[in-house]
Amino acid sequence: MKIFIEKNYTDLSKRVADIIESEMKEKSNLVLGLATGSTPIGTYEELIKRHKEEGLDFSKITTFNLDEYLGIPHDHVNSYHYFMEENFFKSINIDNDKINIPNGNPENAEEYCKAYDEKIENQGGIDVQILGIGENGHIAFNEPDDKLYLGTHVTDLTESTIKANSRFFDSIDDVPKKAITMGLGSIMKSKKILLLASGKNKANTIKKLLKDGVVSTHNPASLLLLHPDVTIILDEEAAEEY
Ligand code: GLP
């Protein structure tokens, strides 16, 4: 496991972009696992900058997003489809056919989830997976629980995640209560994992992850500590209690 502690959010974002850029240069048809939330926005901005200024080429890249709210239209301002389009895809030269985001309105959720995992496998698996972390240690929408699911699945969001994500909605009642998410097994199959955390509100989360020396389904991010190629990129605020 590698840990980088960067001075601030800008440096954190540049570090993550550096790692992704170097992987893209090694493999032009990289399969990139993408995350939403506020943390990776700076990384996306940095990659967009490199695309515009240095011609960083996304034309052969395939992407798989981790999750989507259930029952939300794709053009809803709070859908992860909308988020990805606005914060990343509309500003790079990615082929629309190579973008994969879980469908928040599947006809048959069980079949859809299975097909999503199969599609990842058929692409040869995810080469580099970007991850944020919820304050309660959730990864994608794998919430702390007695058990965690391996594959992509539908899940209930915890009260704390609904509360944390309500900052993006008009009211807490508007936050969807369910989501479709890649499972810990799908995520752990990625060849390389980049876990990002920024800001004081993640300091205790990072302390629990890195100092407790415990792996538990009640702290889903802790399972990542078992992965052979995980890099954790923090800013000083998130690393404050570590
Ligand atoms: C959401 C997403 C996660 C993300 C988390 C943290 O719940 N499903 O993938 O890691 O929020 O978000 P933020 O980066 O805004 O703290």
Q: How many separate helices?
A: 7
The portion of residues assigned to helices is 25-40%
Proper CATH architecture:
3-Layer(aba) Sandwich
H/E element order? EHEHEEHEHEEHEHEHE
Structural class: alpha/beta
Overall CATH class: Alpha Beta
Assembly type of the shown chains? single chain
Give Rg in angstroms. Answer: 17 Å
Catalytic activity: alpha-D-glucosamine 6-phosphate + H2O = beta-D-fructose 6-phosphate + NH4(+)
Pfam families: Glucosamine_iso (PF01182)
Function: Catalyzes the reversible isomerization-deamination of glucosamine 6-phosphate (GlcN6P) to form fructose 6-phosphate (Fru6P) and ammonium ion.
Pathway: Amino-sugar metabolism; N-acetylneuraminate degradation; D-fructose 6-phosphate from N-acetylneuraminate: step 5/5
Protein model, in words:
- The protein is of the alpha/beta class and 242 residues long.
- The protein has a single domain (2-190, 213-226), classed as Rossmann fold.
- 31% of the residues lie in helices and 17% in strands.
- The chain has seven helices and ten strands.
- The protein has a seven-stranded parallel beta sheet, with helices on one face. Strands 4-8-7 form a three-stranded antiparallel beta sheet.
- Helix 2 (41-54) links the parallel strand 2 (31-34) and strand 3 (62-65).
- Helix 1 packs across helix 2.
- The longest helix is centred in the first third of the chain and has 18 residues, at 9-26.
- The protein is globular, with a radius of gyration of 17 Å.
- 41% of the residues are buried.
